[in-house]
Amino acid sequence: MAAVTEEQQDSPVRKSSEQLKEKVYQGNGGVPGDLGEQEDYGLSGVLEKEQSDILKSSRNVCELLEKIREETEALEKQVVNVCSSGPPKVAAALSAAVEVRCSLDELLQREQRISNRLQQHLQGTKQWMEDLGQMCNHVDFIERSMKYLKCLHHIEELSAAVQQSLMINSVWDAIKGVENMAALDCGLNQSQCSHLRDFLRQTLCFWHNIIKDRLTSDFEKVLAQLQWPVITPNQSVTTPANYQELSSQLEGLLLQLLALQTSDDLISQRASASTQGAPPSTLFPAAPSLCLPIQIMLQPLTKRFRYHFYGNRQTNSIHKPEWYLTQVLKWMENSATFLEEKVQPVFDRSGQTISAKVALCQGLVCLVQEKVASDASRMLYDDGLFCHLVEEVLQFEKDLRSHHSYPAMLPALLHILLDDAFLQKWLAVERKMAVEKMDAMLSAEGAWTSQYKDISDMDELKAPECAETFMTLLQVITERYRALPSPAAQLRFFGLQKELVDDFRIRLTQVMKEESRCPLGVRYCAILNAVNYISTILRDWGDNVFFLQLQQAAVSLGQQEVLGSLEMTEVGRLASLEGSLFDGLLSLLDRLKGDMLGRLLHFLMRDTAEKAQPYCQERWLSIPPPQDQSAMSLSSSACPMMLCVRDRLLNLHQVLSVSLFQLAWQGLAEKLDNFIYQEVILSNHFSDGGAAQLQFDMTRNLFPLFGHYCRRPENFFKHVKEACIILCLKVGSAILLKDLLKRSEQEATDFEDPSPESALNELGVFCLAPCDVLILLDLKASLPRI
Length: 786
Known about the structure:
Blueprint: H1 2-27, H2 33-56, H3 61-84, H4 87-167, H5 171-187, H6 194-225, H7 243-259, H8 261-274, H9 292-309, H10 321-349, H11 356-378, H12 383-403, H13 414-417, H14 420-443, H15 465-482, H16 487-515, H17 522-542, H18 545-557, H19 560-563, H20 568-575, H21 583-611, H22 613-616, H23 639-655, H24 658-681, H25 688-706, H26 718-727, H27 731-745, H28 756-763, H29 770-778
Helix pairs in contact: 1-2, 1-3, 4-5, 4-6, 5-6, 6-7, 7-10, 9-11, 10-11, 10-12, 12-14, 14-15, 14-16, 15-16, 15-17, 16-17, 16-18, 16-21, 17-21, 21-23, 21-24, 23-25, 24-26, 25-26, 27-29
């Protein structure tokens, strides 16, 4: 019964288990298999565990069934929630998409219907549009024709008004009508109606010329009664009886001509535009636009100029350009008073900013430009004539700018010389004449003597005549090209100057080599003075404002002829004004000067050394002490050396410039100091008397020879002076000093002992090293050997 009961009890359990599995599997149909498998696996585990307990105890069957039922319901709810949570949202989205698709299809259908209706409408109105376009074009044509006719009628009205004004002598109304025509012409400048523009311009020119001719005739009559032009400065001017009336007429005519200026400028522009295809002249700029009164006043002067300086007249001489240049300057000067008193006040009252004097000068300069350009082209193959023309043009330019206040912004004659052909010729003539002058100045009789030799205050540099003449030549070249309006052209002349300086340096070097056998000769020293003089002048020029401006122009323009092969750092120094354009030449000249000074000092020392040989062989050990001598005197063996030094110094002082002589005597002092120290002091031993005698010879005889040229000559003989101090030390002091120096060498000096340098400084020894002092102490015969 127990077994049957267990089986009976077991069968409901198994049945419920199977039912639970089926429900789980059925409920898992809408979810992934993983979830079902996981649930199955978990449930199987529970069942197996529970079944094992059931087998042990059958009393828990009811509780187990209830528990399983609750868990099954919970699992079913979870499965249902999982399966039903997603589809409602997806369905809503799909429904919305369907509605949008339907709306889009409906809109597309409406668009197609409207497009079809629009095409039908356009097809129906196409013919209407074509008819309307033709009608608008016709209306536009009629409108433009009306405007054309109105403009043509307006031109005819203006022309008739001008004609009527001239018939009744109303010049101001006629001028106003011409001004209106000029304004209309400017307004039609962009119009495509070429025939209308041509008709207007022809009408404008017709009436403008008529008014201009009438005013010109009246203006010339008034000017003639006022005795214009003023040809000579002493021209007799008698005041006419109707002077006041003439003055009022002159003022009225000037104002009328100025009012006519607008149309005159317009006509002149049209004329210049019509000839624009012709190649422009490069010799001189286009003629300036002068006001009408000045143009009329220039006419008699132009006639006179062309009469006298063109054709077969004797005054038209290619050899005498100064004739017409001077004449033009005289006309400017003679006309100034008339213009300032009678014309300029009218210009000022009319509100014009025109200078009557400058305007007249402009017109006369144009005449001269044409003449100079014509003559210069005929002088290209004659150096003398071309050089003379350049000189006269430069003088004319100078007078024009300085005496007649001609503005710098307005071109004059120098612009003609900037033409490449004329500029090349000018440079060639400058180079040729400069070389000829260099040959002449170096071969002249007084080439190596100073023209200021008898004037001590003016002869500090003692420059020979050839050097002064050469620098004057360079200065004249500078003054000639300084006024050129083009920095590029100025730099070309500066390049020529550098070539000439280098050529002159080479010539000086050649003459120096011929004279190097006798460096104390007058010619050798004159060459040295010449090199120093040129260097000094070039350094001064390097700080000159004009050459500083050229320096900036050379850097900005990148002129290789001037800058040469300078590195970027050197070009940067020039740009920052740290260097100068003469640095290359100055380095060559300084090298030549240093070489010549070296040769001179070498010759001096060789001569001095020969005279000093007896002094070097003096028996210094046998000289008695000073207390045994009645009076100390110069050593007899030193007299030749002292005389030689004195004579050479006097000679150099007379033939060398101040700066060169200072370098020479200082160099000689340095070499003498080394020579006496090496050949006299270190080569001998000295008794106390010998040391005293050496000190007497140096301090009382040699040093004073140089005392004429400085306050403390002993400072230039430091080795000799300090050696004499050491040799003249008393025995006790010498022993103590030697002991100190030796102990310092052995590095056994006590902390309390003074340093060797401080001990030597207390004695006045600053130049000699301790080891040199030990050598000198060993030369002192009275000092016992330690």
